[in-house]
Write a structure and sequence with these properties.
elongated, Tetracycline Repressor, domain 2, mainly alpha, transcription, repressor, 202 residues, BetI_C, 9 helices
Length: 202
C-alpha cells in the first residue's frame, strides 16, 4: 500500500526535525565540552537518537560539525538582517542597527561564544570549517560595505572601514560575552555608534 501525501509530508518533517536536533545537540556539546567532547555518542545521547542515525543524516561527525557551524552562522545572519529590517529607513540608522545587533540576544550569548571558540579552533585544521569561516566573514563585511555605501562612504574607503568596524564589533562582542556584568551591552553599543559617527563625520 502506498503512503498517502499526508503521511509522506509528515515523514519529511520528522526527518528535518531529527536533523535539526542533531545540529542543536552538536552546538550544545561544542559549547560545553569543546571539540574534544563532541563525540558521536555524546551528541546522539543529547539529541535523543541512536548513534547509527547520525550517519543517516550526515557523512560523519566532521560533516555534522560543519553543518552546525553553517546553522549557527545562519542564525546570526538572520538576527542581523532582522535588526536592519526593523530600523528606521535612514542609512545611518540601518548601519548602526547592523553593528549593534551583535550586542543583544541571540548573538550576545556566552553559549554562542563557547560554540564559536570551538569552531575557531578548527579553522586552521579543517578545510570545510575554514571555507565556512571565510564565507561568513566575507558576507558580514560585504553587508557592511553595502550599508557604508548607503551612508556615502567612498568606494576607496569602504573596504578598510568595513574591516575596521568588523574588528571593533568582534572585540566588543568578545568582551561582552566573556563577562556581561563588567561590560554592559549599552556601553558596547555606544562605542560602536561613536566609531560610526566619527567615520561618517570625517
Amino acid at each position: 500500500m502506498s503512503l498517502s501525501p499526508h503521511r509522506a509530508a509528515f515523514t519529511r518533517e520528522d526527518a528535518e526535525t531529527r536533523r535539526l536536533a542533531l545540529i542543536e545537540a552538536c552546538a550544545a556539546c561544542l559549547a560545553e565540552q569543546g571539540v574534544g567532547g563532541a563525540s558521536v555518542r555524546t551528541i546522539c545521547a543529547r539529541a535523543g537518537v541512536s548513534p547509527g542515525l547520525l550517519r543517516h543524516y550526515f557523512d560523519g561527525i566532521d560533516a555534522l560539525v560543519a553543518a552546525t557551524y553553517r546553522h549557527v552562522t545562519h542564525t546570526v545572519n538572520d538576527a542581523l538582517a532582522a535588526a536592519v529590517a526593523a530600523a528606521p529607513p535612514e542609512p545611518r540608522a540601518r548601519l548602526i542597527a547592523y553593528t549593534t545587533a551583535s550586542f543583544r540576544a541571540p548573538i550576545a550569548d556566552p553559549a554562542l561564544l563557547a560554540t564559536w571558540i570551538a569552531f575557531w579552533s578548527l579553522v586552521k585544521a579543517d578545510p570545510a570549517i575554514a571555507a565556512i569561516h571565510a564565507e561568513t566573514y566575507g558576507g558580514y563585511r560585504a553587508a557592511l560595505e553595502a550599508l557604508l555605501a548607503e551612508c556615502g562612504v567612498s568606494a576607496m574607503e569602504r573596504h578598510g572601514a568595513a574591516i575596521g568596524l568588523t574588528a571593533l564589533v568582534d572585540g566588543l562582542w568578545l568582551e561582552l560575552t566573556l563577562d556581561p556584568a563588567s561590560f554592559p551591552a549599552d556601553q558596547a553599543s555606544a562605542l560602536a555608534v561613536r566609531w560610526v559617527d566619527a567615520l561618517l563625520g570625517g
